[in-house]
């Protein structure tokens, strides 16, 4: 059985970690470097760093902050936000990132997925998909969830996998920040259809939600933010619970 992964997410705005509900109503959640070190020390399997306004503000991810976080941790580190070229990826990998995450740029120019996978290897390329259900149909959204597209989520997930993405970070905008549980149905649907790992994001509120997304949702990894940032669920306790429930975990 493959080990499941627990991944804290640092959503960065103006150099600070923030968290909102349904992608809005952001509030401060602390210093990203300090949080990153805590999560690494607590046994998180990976860390995701998303500069959530980089695309909107038409600026690049805060490279110096990436370097500081990378120096503070000893776990795999994915960085996203404002990445649109192969050169952007080179800079971030050079700053200490292990993987990069693209969303809006991939929708705008799907060929960039092929180019990045060819240049750096699929294992470096994570495609983030922000999805919202509209009248029973799941649609992809871009620019931090601000712009709806006509892309159907399931079809887009298959396309990015076919183009060479090594992983998909699937965030349910409907569930994000609600603490009502992950979007297990669409997560399971995409996980079953693809041969690459799917990271589920959006909606974690208690430990059983993680169990559900690994069992019913068929996710390979689960990502959360506020419940970790505000000390609602300690990562060691979560991993111990999941292991007790029969889910394979890396325990320190």
Automatic annotation (TrEMBL):
Pfam families given in the database record: His_biosynth (PF00977)
Residue stretches spanning the membrane: none
Gene3D superfamilies listed in its UniProt record: Aldolase class I (3.20.20.70)
Pathway: Amino-acid biosynthesis; L-histidine biosynthesis; L-histidine from 5-phospho-alpha-D-ribose 1-diphosphate: step 5/9
Residues in the signal sequence: none
EC class name: lyase
Keyword Nucleotidyltransferase listed: no
Catalytic residues of the enzyme: 11, 130
Keywords: Amino-acid biosynthesis, Cytoplasm, Histidine biosynthesis, Lyase
Compartment(s): Cytoplasm
Example GO molecular function: imidazoleglycerol-phosphate synthase activity
UniProt key word Lyase: yes
Enzyme Commission designation: 4.3.2.10
Catalytic reaction(s) noted: 5-[(5-phospho-1-deoxy-D-ribulos-1-ylimino)methylamino]-1-(5-phospho-beta-D-ribosyl)imidazole-4-carboxamide + L-glutamine = D-erythro-1-(imidazol-4-yl)glycerol 3-phosphate + 5-amino-1-(5-phospho-beta-D-ribosyl)imidazole-4-carboxamide + L-glutamate + H(+)
Major place of residence: cytoplasm
Gene Ontology cellular component list: cytoplasm
One of the GO biological process terms: L-histidine biosynthetic process
Subunit structure and binding partners: Heterodimer of HisH and HisF.
HAMAP family: HisF (MF_01013)
Function: IGPS catalyzes the conversion of PRFAR and glutamine to IGP, AICAR and glutamate. The HisF subunit catalyzes the cyclization activity that produces IGP and AICAR from PRFAR using the ammonia provided by the HisH subunit.
NCBIfam families (alphabetical): hisF
Name of the molecule in the record: Imidazole glycerol phosphate synthase subunit HisF
